[in-house]
Structure to design on (320 residues):
């Protein structure tokens, strides 16, 4: 399989156990990635894992994440909101989503509650739930503690606090309070993903060609690569102040960009080399799936409509 890792990881935080599931390529072509995979779980479309729907928190990478394409670094999360019934959604950037793909997983599903404050370490063989022996509340201190435990292993870390989600590189993701607080209440304080492997590209030559062209067209002269970019994109294509929030009428388009793994704020700001017309070509080059524009927008509408249903109409369903 190209582009997608082909596997998802489900973790029982209470017992510290885990299991994996391989998904067929046709499933990914129905849901794409990111919020699509999360919605598939919460609407009971993942056979055998229906019991996790509505209670678990799921975090998934978009379809293009892990490729060298500029801005393709977005992960999405979904879980039961509190105190109001419904579903809370979140997304963020950085290298965490790419590392999840590199390690061989498209999505991690987190169920139940850990007995004590803990952190999760994910690698290509599975995961391990480790206790945090001493009480640590500061996000930076938690990340530092985990890095010390991991030693020389290269990893990306998301830290969950009652104020939201923070990366180990100091990125504070907006509108993440519900999901971050939920995981903190469940005694999961962080997830560290070790960098192992890479993403198989269907057409590496085309992907690299598009990536180079994007850099030449959009990189600001003199701006360094790294985390100085507006949304932690590895291309650092625009200044932080250029990032803006998508308008309400762009919700369907946002669902599509998130499923692809590109931050919709990057698109809305005009600070991206990509347009909707590029997605078919990019997805084909990364995954090998020769999709049409109609197929992609059908997926986007399906994700958006399911979001509305789960958030607004099925609040009581989460208490069953």
């Amino acid at each position: 399989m190209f582009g997608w890792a082909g596997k998802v990881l489900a973790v029982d935080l209470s017992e510290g156990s885990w299991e994996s599931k391989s998904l067929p390529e046709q499933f990914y072509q129905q849901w794409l990635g990111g919020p699509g995979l999360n919605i598939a779980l919460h609407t009971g479309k993942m056979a055998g894992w229906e019991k996790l729907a509505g209670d678990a928190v799921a975090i998934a990478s978009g379809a293009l994440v892990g490729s060298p394409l500029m801005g393709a670094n977005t992960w999405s999360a979904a879980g039961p909101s509190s105190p109001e019934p419904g579903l809370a959604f979140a997304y963020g950037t950085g290298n965490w989503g790419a590392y999840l793909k590199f390690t061989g997983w498209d999505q991690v599903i987190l169920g139940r509650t850990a007995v004590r404050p803990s952190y999760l370490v994910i690698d290509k063989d599975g995961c391990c739930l480790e206790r945090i022996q001493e009480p640590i509340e500061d996000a930076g201190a938690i990340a530092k503690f985990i890095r010390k435990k991991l030693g020389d292993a290269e990893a990306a870390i998301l830290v969950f606090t009652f104020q939201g989600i923070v990366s180990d590189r100091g990125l504070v993701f907006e509108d993440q309070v519900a999901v971050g607080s939920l995981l903190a209440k469940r005694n999961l304080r962080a997830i560290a993903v070790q960098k192992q492997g890479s993403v198989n590209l269907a057409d590496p030559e085309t992907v690299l060609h598009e990536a180079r062209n994007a850099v030449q067209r959009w990189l600001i002269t003199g701006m360094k690569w790294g985390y100085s970019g507006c949304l932690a994109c590895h291309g650092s294509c625009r200044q932080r102040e250029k990032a803006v929030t998508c308008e309400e009428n762009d919700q369907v388009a946002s669902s599509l960009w998130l499923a692809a793994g590109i931050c919709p704020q990057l698109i809305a700001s005009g600070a991206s080399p990509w347009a909707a017309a590029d997605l078919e070509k990019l997805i084909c080059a990364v995954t090998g799936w020769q999709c049409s524009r109609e197929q992609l927008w059908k997926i986007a509408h399906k994700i958006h409509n399911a979001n509305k249903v789960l958030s607004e109409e099925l609040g009581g369903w989460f208490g069953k």
Notes: The domain at 1-320 is CATH 3.60.9.10 (Aldehyde Ferredoxin Oxidoreductase;  A, domain 1). The first helix runs from residue 25 to 31. Residues 227-232, 234-249, 313-320 have pLDDT under 50 and may be disordered. The chain has one domain: 1-320.
